[in-house]
Design brief:
Blueprint (H helix, E strand, L loop, with lengths): L16 H5 L26 H13 L3 H16 L1
Helix pairs in contact: 2-3
């Protein structure tokens, strides 16, 4: 089943090649990456999970942000 890459949850490599090839090169600026740049990801927590996350954070003396970060690090170590 093909999907529209503009609305797909997982666009595939090459799907935008034709669009990118048509961009006027005078409108494109190249910049080196910023080592200090940060990425923010919005995580949606609903229902009972909200209270659960708040309780866990409070019990650990941490913020909900820290609890989620710990969860990701633990999951990453388990996957390795």
């Amino acid at each position: 089943m093909s999907s529209d890459p503009w609305t797909a949850d997982d666009p595939q490599p090459g799907e935008f090649d034709a669009v990118l090839a048509d961009i006027d090169r005078r409108l494109v600026e190249r910049h080196e990456g910023d080592q200090n740049a940060r990425v923010r990801i919005l995580v949606s927590v609903e229902g009972d999970d909200v209270q659960r996350l708040e309780r866990i954070a409070q019990d650990r003396g941490k913020t909900p942000h820290d609890v989620v970060a710990d969860l990701l690090r633990d999951a990453d170590r388990s996957a390795a």
